[in-house]
Amino acid sequence: MSALPQSRAWRALAAHARELADVHLNELFASDEGRAQSFSAEAAGLFLDYSKQRLTRETRDLLLGYAQQQEMSGWIRKLFAGEPLNQTEHRAAYHMALRAPRKAVMTVNGDNVVPKVHAVLDRMAAFADKLRGGHWKGAKRRAITDVVNIGIGGSDLGPRMICYALQPFVDGPRLHFVANVDGTQIEHVLQTLNPATTLFIVASKTFTTQETLANAHVARAWLVAAMGEKAIPKHFAAVSTCMANVQAFGIAPENVFDFWDWVGGRYSLWSAVGLAIMVAIGPQRFRELLAGAHAMDEHFQRAPLQANLPVLMALLAFWNGNILGAADHVIAPYSQQLEKFVSWLQQLEMESNGKRVNRAGEPVGYATTPTLWGDVGTNGQHAFFQMLHQGTAVHPVDFILVAKPDHPHAALHQLLLANGLAQSQALMRGKTAAEVRAELAAKGLSGAALEAAIPHRVFPGNRPSNTLLLQQLDAKALGALCALYEHRTFALSVLWDVNAYDQWGVELGKQLAGTVLKAMQGERVELDGSTRQLLQKLRS
Ligand code: F6P
Description:
The chain is α/β, with parallel strands linked by helices. The chain has 3 domains: 227 residues, Rossmann fold; 194 residues, Rossmann fold, CATH 3.40.50; 35 residues. The chain has 22 helices and 13 strands. The protein has a 6-stranded mixed sheet, sandwiched between helices. It has a 5-stranded parallel sheet with strand order 6-5-7-8-9, sandwiched between helices. β8, α11 and β9 form a beta-alpha-beta unit. The protein is globular, with a radius of gyration of 25 Å. 44% of the residues are buried. 6-O-phosphono-beta-D-fructofuranose binds next to loops.
């Protein structure tokens, strides 16, 4: 069992939390005029107000003390030095090299990887420009109007989220995404397409993922049925780290874009996995996305811990989860364009830090990643915000607000922002019984009816949230936002002493699916009673 909760810094935080237990956020604001400014930070164009967190300056000092105890600065140095931090797979986690400028030097095992990164980026750009300009001709000499990205997990969520978020800048062929092995999805997409004007990108780091290969084979059969085997080189591209597996599928080598084992799947949107993004928004905007992420990398690597956005956000999550006991974390982007952001973040955070043993393999004995969930505001307000305000548990929230909209409806945008700000304010301040009584009395209610109504209308408040502001949701700001959460995930792994870069927990289900599939195909295999019964029911 990990001894971390017994460490000096952890125990100091726990004792301090007991002292703060009865202090309401309203009192903290009342006693400190400059609270909002003191608990704010800014980097790479993003502004964070964390003054609505349940903390004081002393809390922040103690949290920073905990970060120091965990050698945060040393781990950040190791990350940027390309050390094999993913010790169970002996790999570096070096996605920052994917967004480094052409002249930078970033080495893995003594090898400067930046020239390789830019060589692939240049090939991607040439390919994307051809497609976007209508110069890439299909087997029937027709330009490509539709591109389908086939991939799952990190080979889907990142590109899908970015293309959705940058919709106002999308000016290439129409993009479609197929991830699920549920045939409904690919069927729905194929029904709308013409094989002669469609190109498939098969994105898979390993090129062994069952769902992706199954969908790619369906796409291949659909294309071959319409135009024959000869059409494949003009209608299929692939993105992978495993060239041998790609060749076996039969995709022309000139349409294959590689990346490297030091890029984790959920950190791969910046690599060739982002080909679909580049096709959608063009190479120039893709480079702006990389530049935004790079600006956040620079900040994370160089800013002191007390002003370091990813570190601060990780410390706040640690404070809420491990010291104050919150079991989840809500993400509420007040931007329709960020509709897919939560799904991307779920893989990033929960696949990275959903761990029960520490780096040494000992059970941790404390909570690691909280359940991360959410939806765009204002939709979420009309679905689950009731629970955030009046439920029994505290659910910390990250509000994400964008100052300038990418549409002409200024009045709607004002309403959206007013709602976002009001929700964080309501969570913080709450409404007392005295306030409710006065309100109801002013409306003419009195006596027993008034008293009975009060408890249902009281809001406890004192519920923590962060507010992140972006000036505009353009490629650069989005790149910085994604990199902020990537580094927050890593910083959390340091606070929890877990490896953020492996994902062994996804393997057992994959293995068992193979066994169940055999049983479905008539082979005799060992199955438990429940699975056997369910299979029988499915058959009948
Ligand atoms: O879900 C497990 C996982 O390995 C993810 O880490 C990864 O993003 C996804 O599957 C897809 O993997 P690949 O890109 O190799 O097809």
